[in-house]
Design goal:
By secondary structure, the protein is α+β, with helices and mostly antiparallel strands. It folds into 2 domains: 2-185, no CATH class; 206-319, Roll (Chitinase A, domain 3), CATH 3.10.50.40. Helix content is 48%, strand content 14%. Strands 3, 4, 5, 6, 7, 8 and 9 form a 7-stranded antiparallel sheet that branches. The protein has a two-stranded parallel ribbon with strand order 1-2. Helix 4 (47-66) packs parallel to helix 8, helix 4 crosses helix 9 (162-205) and helix 5 (72-83) runs parallel beside helix 7. The protein is elongated.
């Protein structure tokens, strides 16, 4: 599935965004010397022109490289749903079945172009819509996207020549890069503020009765002390747990899911790897984990911001459980 997607619509829309995101991540790690973009330097893009170009070039590439033509209306429908954060209208099994039909057609009629009835087209569009939301880019224009796809599908002359389309996509990629640099700067500023707040919380928490602090800065209290063995970093452990931010907001709980979880102890955040090795089986500890032993300045998902200290109640049930 990935080869099909990356060589059709996704290669020109979502992958352009992904390239900008990867470059911005490299800058965040000091692997590039990206300068701050000023208002005067910002690239202005015409999203209707971008939409037409993505539509035209995606169909052109699909026909030439993969012998497939996507359904313009279904691509636009999927894009709108993805951008609106709706649940996809097609199931994974339907996507896999549609892809299999395409593969079978390609084997039997290698010289023919496969016209997708709609499922793969919808999924292509949906994936790109999700990508635009993640990168916080301005939306494509659905009518222009459809127009570009139809022109390529029908073999018409494009609205823009090859050089102009390359220029349009280069400007779009630059705009995506600038947007990601803005988001990165805002993320870093927010993480710094949260990290300072978390530092103050941990400083005060360390003074409380019963709180123990390790050399790394990990803090913990013993809620219940068990009598079993202690795990090593190379062990797999079975635990129940609840995780909250320092303000009490819960972001995860195996208790609410109704079943414990097993994982290799050396495959989780540092605070867990260190902390659980202190626990005998049967224990329940509360860990107060600084961000540098947790998810760092990047955070994790929508619920754990960068720089955040985390609080986990962890019940160690078993070491190296039988599968």
């Amino acid at each position: 599935m990935n080869k099909l997607l990356t060589l059709t619509l996704i290669s020109l829309g979502a992958l352009t965004l992904a390239a900008a995101e990867e470059q911005t991540e490299a800058c965040a790690k000091d692997e590039c010397a990206a300068k701050e973009v000023t208002k005067a330097e910002k690239v202005e893009v015409n999203m209707k022109d971008v939409s037409y170009t993505i539509g035209f070039d995606s169909v052109k590439a699909g026909k030439e490289q993969n012998k497939i033509v996507l359904n313009p209306e279904k691509v636009a429908e999927g894009y709108k749903d993805g951008f609106a954060k709706k649940s996809p209208a097609v199931k994974q099994e339907e996507i896999q079945e549609a892809h299999q039909k395409y593969l079978e057609f390609s084997k039997e009629k290698a010289d023919k172009v496969y016209e997708d009835p709609g499922t793969l087209s919808y999924y292509n569009g949906y994936t790109m819509g999700v990508g635009f939301v993640r990168m916080q880019m301005a939306s494509l224009d659905a009518d222009s996207l459809i127009a570009g796809m139809k022109d390529a599908k029908e073999g018409k002359e494009p609205k823009f020549n090859d050089d102009k389309r390359k220029e349009i996509m280069a400007q779009f990629e630059q705009a995506a890069m600038e947007k990601q640099q803005e988001l990165l700067k805002a993320q870093q500023e927010k993480a710094a503020k949260i990290k300072e707040e978390s530092k103050k919380f941990l400083e005060e928490n360390a003074k409380k009765e019963g709180v123990k602090v390790t050399e790394s800065g990990l803090q913990y209290t013993i809620i219940k002390e068990g009598e079993g063995a202690k795990p090593k970093a190379t062990d797999t452990v079975k635990v129940h747990y609840k995780g909250t931010l320092v303000d009490g907001k819960e972001f995860d709980s195996s208790y609410k899911r109704g079943e414990p979880i097993s994982f290799p102890l050396n495959g989780v955040i540092k605070g867990w790897t260190e902390g659980l090795q202190l626990m005998p089986v049967g224990s329940t500890y509360r860990f107060f984990i600084p961000s540098d032993l947790g998810y760092g300045d990047r955070g994790a998902g929508a619920d754990i911001p960068g720089g955040a200290a985390l609080i986990f109640d962890v019940e160690l049930i078993e070491i190296n459980p039988e599968k």
